[in-house]
Design brief:
The structure holds two protein chains of two kinds. Chain A contains 14 helices and two strands, in the order αααββααααααααααα. By secondary structure, chain A is mostly helical. In chain A, strands 1-2 form a two-stranded antiparallel sheet. Chain A is globular, with a radius of gyration of 25 Å. Chain B is an alpha+beta fold. The chains are: A mainly alpha, B alpha+beta. At the A-B interface, α2, α6, α11 and α12 of A face α1, β10, α9, α16 and α20 of B.
């Protein structure tokens, strides 16, 4: 098992290098660089100054040389500094000689996105698992049909549209929830209870709306898993033994039905840090989605590469964790791995 | 004004919100009656907080490095320049009491106001001005605006209140450049790298406000600077929230969480007038901006080198239709690249009228006739067809569509391509690989447009990308740069605009109004807006105590 793990981890290194190489070249295939943004298209701004910027950021060198420079920095885990945000560090904070600490872009954005997505995932799971079980147990009954209908609607409604309607209804018409942003302007002067309340009310819409629209997929997964399992012979055996219904469903069936969820959660780890551009734009949340999107538009290469690298590393780790969790949860897989 | 692939979604959002808002009419959120705010004469008093919103976050607050409008929007409240523009867009002293121009027009001597101070109580002297000039022209600084200052041959500070600059030859745009360069404190920045210093996120300036806090991605809070060199502003706190989505901004405005925002024509002329409760609390302002939209020909490509073809296209396009259709009437027709109503705009010029018959006749003269009866004119058997390239900008795309239809009427086959900004610049503008573009110019307040029209400015990355080459224009542009006397200079640029209009290297499409909604709690705003716009006296705006928000003022 340990051997297997070590092998998997070592394999990640060439994979990461390959991913970063491809990303780097694809990124440079898009025309333009940091000097071709709209603000630079100003008759007062001279071409010499743009050339100076290109030299400052090594953008005048061939792509392969730029990649080499990037890789050299990455070996020391230096993600570099953003072009577009006045040389803010891409990943983690740095301090200058006078002790002024500048926070990293990802350092600031990641916790926000992570918190929203984890809360969202938790809500989705808390709702999806019971809904899926009910739908499977009452398969083709009215409960199943109404859950399917609800999911279908949730799945079909565009998130941004629902967001705007709810923002209008809950924020403008009724003033129950804040419309956008993460904190009220007087956040600093609140006591800790007030701060918590303030944060939660700001998070309500951005967390709940994606959970509702994301509910459909997971519910369907749980339902189908349950349906599969409930038809297995060992369930029939358990029933035949005279075990009570609850024990059959929640102990014997559910555990097996949830196995595929491990894969889904594992695969959703990169999504957890990705964030949604649209939701973050609408709700004015300075998260990872907006950061990445703006970086692409500004051709802010260090930020794009930083997020892609961290994203792909997390994807690989997520896959590994999912496999390990699988092995832990499913003895058949465990035996297969041990044989390797 | 970034535009991008999300465009479709943004449009969809706008449509949805508009339909929603138009449909719902009265909302249950009723406020005090309109009359109460409008008619009471509140005494002028200081205090309160003004909450603003913007879509992008500044990268830093040294605007000569940052370069983007979000940065200068904030930093112009924090830093002063030597000169500034008054409400009629004439130059006046900001940090200086007066300035003198030598007889040969090469030297400008600025006299600073006495006893100037930085917000941290240090004296502000000519040494700071000299330092700022050195910083912007420094080899290690990549300021997009350095070129104006690199022309200074010699900069001197004979005494703490005097700063003088000497140019190799008279340079008229110099005065404007000294109105745009924000003076930085030497004692805090000496020896620092402007590209990495933490000062950009924690600046110390001399203007009405100082930065209190900056919550990344959320808001910037400014409060009054007790040492302000120009006296005290009325409003205590300026808070700018960063809300990237326009619809979300508008919802915040409706919910009274922000006090002002820029509007698009639909919100200005359709949504707000349809909502009495919004009309009650919002005052609408319109002012002419410093930009215009145009259609530019690649003059190196045939047949656009033929003036008859350019004139024909100019006559064939109905500009009023574009203003009505795209800007809902909230724009004007222009005939020169200057803001109408300012001294540089030549009042005798009139735009090309819409005249398709004349357009057809001109095309015929140029040898374009429809020989095969397919509705498209041909020259030597080749149909007249071209592609309009533009960036993904709603207004420009819509304008292009209207142009397409009008040109079809005179037998020209037009295709439209709208692409993302950076690709647009690199793939089409820099390479010169385009026939026709629809774009806009945002102009400074100085009339010099050498970089756009002079024939020497055609290298890749320079701004005469349409390849305009006219010796008369070149000469006028050169003269205009050498003449510092405003009246003589005005005559040069009036002539320049006349020749330009006659030659028609571009078709002026329209100049849209800047539209703003401001909560009526804010008083002291000039209406109608003077040429400089409503913001020119924002330090005199005030919010009467009974109209202030509670939670913020308590803060």
């Amino acid at each position: 098992m340990l051997k297997y793990l070590i092998k998997r981890v070592l394999w990640m290194i060439p994979m990461l290098i390959g991913i970063s190489l491809i990303s780097f070249f694809i990124m440079h295939l898009a025309p333009g660089d940091i000097t071709s943004n709209e603000a630079a298209f100003n008759p007062k701004a001279s071409e010499e100054s743009r050339q100076k910027l290109r030299e400052m950021y090594n953008l005048d060198k061939p792509v392969i040389v730029q990649y080499g420079l990037w890789l050299k920095r990455m070996v020391t885990l230096d993600f570099g500094k953003s072009f577009a945000s006045h040389q803010k560090p891409v990943f983690w904070q740095t301090a200058d000689n006078d002790g002024n600490v500048t926070k990293g872009l990802i350092q600031e954005a990641l916790p926000i996105t992570l918190m929203i997505n984890l809360l969202g995932l938790a809500i989705t799971l808390i709702l999806a698992i019971p809904l899926g079980i009910i739908a499977a147990r009452k398969y083709l009954g009215w409960q199943d049909r109404s859950i399917t209908l609800f999911n279908f609607i949730g799945f079909s409604i565009p998130g941004f549209w629902l967001s705007l309607l709810l923002m209008y209804w809950l924020g403008v018409v009724n003033n129950w929830f804040p419309i956008s942003g993460l904190h009220s302007l007087n956040y600093e002067s609140l006591d800790s209870w007030g701060k918590l309340k303030d944060s939660l009310s700001h998070l309500f819409l951005p967390v709940v709306i994606p959970s509702i629209t994301g509910l459909a997929g997971i519910t369907l997964f749980v339902k189908n898993g349950m349906l599969d399992v409930l038809q297995q012979d060992y369930i029939t055996t358990a029933r035949a033994k005279g075990l009570n219904k609850h024990k059959v469903v929640y102990t014997h069936a559910l555990r097996n039905a949830l196995l595929p969820l491990i894969t889904i959660i594992g695969l959703s780890i990169p999504g957890l840090i990705g964030g949604s551009v649209i939701a973050e734009t609408i709700f004015a949340i300075p998260g990872m989605g907006k950061l990445f999107y703006d970086a692409v538009l500004m051709r802010d290469f260090p930020v794009v590469m930083g997020i892609l690298t961290i994203g792909s590393a997390l994807t690989l780790v997520g896959n590994l964790l999912a496999d390990v969790a699988y092995a832990w949860a499913d003895p058949r897989v465990r035996r297969g791995v041990a044989r390797d | 004004m970034t535009n991008h692939p999300l465009h479709f979604i943004k449009n969809a959002i706008i449509v949805v919100v508009c339909m929603w808002l138009l449909a719902c009419g009265e909302s249950p959120n009723s406020h005090q009656s309109a009359a109460s705010i409008d008619n009471i004469n509140y005494p002028i008093e200081s205090g309160g907080a003004l909450i603003n919103a913007m879509t992008g976050e500044p990268s830093g607050l040294i605007s000569m490095i940052a370069g983007e409008s979000a940065s200068s929007a904030i930093s112009s409240n924090i830093f002063n320049s030597l000169l500034k523009y008054d409400k009629n867009l004439e130059l006046e002293g900001d940090l200086v009491t007066n300035w003198q121009i030598s007889a040969d027009q090469k030297t400008i001597i600025f006299k600073l106001k006495p006893n100037l101070k930085w917000a941290d109580n240090q004296p502000l002297t000519s040494a700071d001005v000299l330092f700022t000039w050195q910083a912007v022209t420094d080899e290690k600084t990549a300021s997009p605006y350095a070129s104006d200052f690199q022309l200074v041959k010699k900069a001197e500070t004979p005494d703490p209140l005097t700063f003088s600059v000497t140019y190799n030859q008279a340079y008229a745009p110099a005065l404007d450049s000294w109105a745009s360069l924000q003076i930085l404190p030497k004692h805090l920045l000496q020896g620092k790298n402007l590209h990495t210093t933490a000062f950009v996120r924690n600046p110390v300036g001399s203007h009405y406000y100082k930065l209190d806090s900056w919550a990344h991605g959320e808001n910037l809070k400014l409060s009054r600077n007790a040492n302000s060199v120009l006296g005290q502003a009325k409003i205590d706190k300026l808070i700018t929230r960063i809300i990237p989505d326009n619809s979300a901004q508008f919802l915040e405005l409706m919910a009274d969480n922000i006090d002002l925002m820029g509007l698009d024509p639909i919100k200005y002329s359709r949504i707000i007038p349809a909502h009495p409760e919004l009309q009650q609390k919002l005052a609408l302002y319109k002012e002419l901006g410093n930009s215009y939209t145009y259609m530019g020909f690649n003059l190196k490509h045939k047949p656009f080198d033929d003036i008859r073809v350019r004139h024909a296209i100019n006559y064939a396009i109905d500009k009023q239709e574009i203003i009505d259709g795209v800007y809902l009437g909230l724009g004007i027709n222009i005939a020169s690249p200057y803001k109408p109503g300012t001294r540089w705009s030549n009042p005798e010029l009139t735009p090309y009228p819409y005249n398709p018959a004349k357009a057809k006749a001109l095309l015929k003269q140029a040898g374009f006739v429809d020989t095969d009866g397919d509705g498209i004119v041909e020259q030597d058997g080749k149909p007249f067809a071209f592609e309009i390239v533009t960036n993904q900008n709603k207004e420009r795309e819509k304008s292009a569509v209207l142009i397409q239809r009008r040109l079809k009427d005179v037998g020209i086959d037009v295709k439209i391509r709208a692409i993302e900004w950076a690709s647009f610049i690199s793939r089409f503008i820099k390479t010169g690989d385009f026939d026709v573009v629809v774009l806009g110019w945002g102009l400074g307040l100085d009339p010099d447009q050498y970089n756009i029209w002079h024939s020497s400015q055609q290298a890749p990355g320079q701004f005469n990308f349409i390849g305009y080459n006219n010796p008369t224009i070149d000469k006028l542009l050169e003269q205009g740069r050498l003449e510092l006397n405003p009246d003589k200079r005005m005559k040069i640029y009036h002539e320049f605009a006349r020749v330009l209009l006659e030659d028609s290297p571009i078709v002026y499409l329209s100049a849209g109004y800047g539209l703003t909604a401001i909560n009526k709690r804010v008083k002291g705003i000039d209406d109608p807006a003077p040429p400089a716009g409503i913001g020119h006296n924002s330090h005199d705006w005030y919010i009467p105590t009974p109209l202030r928000r509670n939670e913020i003022s308590a803060n």
